[in-house]
């Protein structure tokens, strides 16, 4: 029997915090273990009703800042299974099928066939056993099995963008600098423990390839590093929990001229949230050579011709959703008990407004349903609840992270005024029903983390 390692008090607290998050996620319907009734399957999760809305909001917040809020980035939705030559050219077929060992101390990963003896070249730590590290999922296409029908599930969405460089540039009549963005599922046969949805075998990526004239590379790299860092702060992540880690020269891919990660201070330590990389003209050139298509920018009038350089912000939606959730989680000590509250930015919160009749009689439910319909028509994510004491209903919404609770009481039937209760401050205000929608828009716009 193997002995469990003794945890330090900090590690124990971190583990307990993650356990709280995991249990809240299950209890409230954010995230469930996949195939739970069959004992689960490693590093794989399903999203419940609140989790789905949370992820939709994260994707929308990304898309609205990276694509639709600007004039120089367009979207793409490319296939998960592409011609296998794509992954040979990109280096994924060759790059992910070596026998690998991990150093238990410094966490570096090495090719077993490059090691001499048992010592780790970096720190001398103990190594795990060698294993074939096949990060890509293989599958078969067509009716006949065999080597000619082998295909792969994409391990990143970026390659689909490079493949369509010319299609998009020509159809949308674009000239660098411009970007192509994509959100979609990627698949990696992750073997290391996942820390909940931080590392899973299938996950959604949000990637954007920004194509620039080569001499503008550095200025756009600086621009996107800042823009992507600011996005998290704007959406409520506490800046003290974020940092930008610039990669050392020896961490860079051989073709890359710069890379930086936005990192978050998770309970289990600093971890990568998103990477911003200079990929130069490497991918377009490789695919041009291998396919024979000239993936270049060409201006027929000026005859200007070059292969653009690429800046790539690449993040994971699941990791972002987890980060918003962890950062939003607070336990507040009140007079009589502890309040659990998720202080999501209203744009990220799965439910924006909850509507309650104070009591389930005297025409209040009917009036509350009218308010609910008004809010749904204004496209607010709305939840109606008439069960239990009003205080209990507020607390349930605090745990869901709902920023506004709207209560219809006896007076509302006379004066058409409702009570809006704010999640973070728990303060209450009386608002006329016909001013409610604009009041909520204003409150969302003015929201600040307290
Ligand atoms: P890591 O070092 O954590 O494995 P990576 O550097 O391989 O990540 P990239 O290939 O740069 O990651 O992918 C971009 C983003 O996609 C990451 O910053 C992360 O947010 C997300 N991501 C990558 N792998 C996973 C995974 N297995 N599960 C969830 N998200 C992932």
In short:
This protein is of the alpha+beta class. The protein is 32% helix and 26% strand.
Features:
450 residues; alpha+beta; Rossmann fold; seven-stranded mixed beta sheet; five-stranded mixed beta sheet; 23 strands; globular; binds adenosine-5'-triphosphate
Question: Would you kindly provide a written description of the structure presented here, covering whatever features stand out?
Answer:
With 450 residues, the protein is α+β, with helices and mostly antiparallel strands. The chain folds into two domains: 9-83 and 154-325, Bira Bifunctional Protein, Domain 2 (BirA Bifunctional Protein, domain 2), CATH 3.30.930.10; 351-445, 3-Layer(aba) Sandwich (Rossmann fold), CATH 3.40.50. The protein contains 13 helices and 23 strands. Strand 22 (417-422) and strand 23 (428-432) form a beta hairpin. Adenosine-5'-triphosphate (ATP) is lined by residues 156, 188, 190, 199-200, 203, 205, 272-275, 314-316, 318-319.
């Amino acid at each position: 029997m193997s002995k469990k390692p003794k945890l330090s008090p900090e590690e124990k607290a971190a583990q307990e915090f993650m356990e709280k998050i995991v249990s809240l996620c299950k209890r409230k319907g954010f995230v469930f273990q996949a195939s739970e009734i069959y004992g689960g399957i490693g590093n794989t999760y399903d999203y419940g009703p609140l989790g789905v809305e949370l992820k939709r909001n994260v994707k929308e917040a990304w898309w609205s800042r990276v694509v639709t809020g600007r004039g120089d980035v367009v979207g793409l939705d490319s296939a998960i299974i592409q011609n296998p030559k794509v992954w040979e050219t990109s280096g994924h077929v060759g790059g992910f099928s070596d026998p690998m060992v991990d150093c238990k101390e410094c966490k570096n990963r090495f090719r077993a066939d490059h090691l001499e003896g048992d010592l780790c070249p970096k720190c001398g730590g103990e190594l795990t056993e060698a294993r074939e590290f096949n990060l890509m999922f293989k599958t078969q296409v067509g009716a006949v099995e065999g080597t000619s029908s082998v295909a792969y599930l994409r391990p990143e969405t970026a390659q689909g963008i490079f493949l369509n460089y010319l299609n998009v540039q020509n159809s949308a009549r674009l000239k660098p600098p411009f970007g192509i963005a994509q959100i979609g599922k990627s698949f990696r046969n992750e073997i290391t423990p996942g820390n909940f949805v931080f590392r899973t075998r299938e996950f959604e990526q949000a990637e954007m390839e920004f194509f620039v004239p080569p001499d503008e590379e550095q200025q756009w790299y600086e621009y996107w590093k800042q823009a992507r860092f600011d996005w998290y702060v704007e959406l409520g992540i506490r800046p003290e929990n974020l940092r930008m880690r610039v990669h050392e020269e020896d961490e860079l891919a051989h073709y890359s001229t710069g890379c930086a990660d936005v990192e978050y201070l998770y309970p289990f330590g600093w971890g990568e949230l998103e990477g911003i990389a200079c990929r130069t003209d490497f991918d377009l050139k490789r695919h041009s050579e291998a396919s024979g298509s000239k993936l270049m920018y060409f201006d027929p009038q000026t005859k200007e011709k070059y292969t653009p350089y690429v800046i790539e912000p690449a993040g994971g939606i699941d990791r972002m959703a987890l980060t918003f959730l962890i950062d939003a989680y607070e336990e507040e000590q009140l007079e009589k008990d502890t309040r659990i509250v998720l202080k999501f930015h209203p744009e990220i919160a799965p439910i924006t407004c909850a509507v309650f009749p104070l009591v389930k009689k005297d025409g209040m439910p009917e009036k509350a349903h009218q308010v609910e319909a008004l809010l749904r028509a204004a496209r607010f994510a709305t939840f109606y609840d008439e069960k239990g004491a009003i205080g209990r209903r507020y607390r349930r919404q605090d745990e869901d992270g709902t920023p506004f609770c709207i209560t219809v009481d006896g007076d509302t039937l006379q004066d058409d005024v409702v009570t809006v209760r704010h999640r973070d401050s728990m303060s209450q205000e009386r608002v006329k029903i016909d001013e409610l929608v604009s009041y909520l828009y204003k409150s969302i716009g003015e929201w600040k983390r307290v």
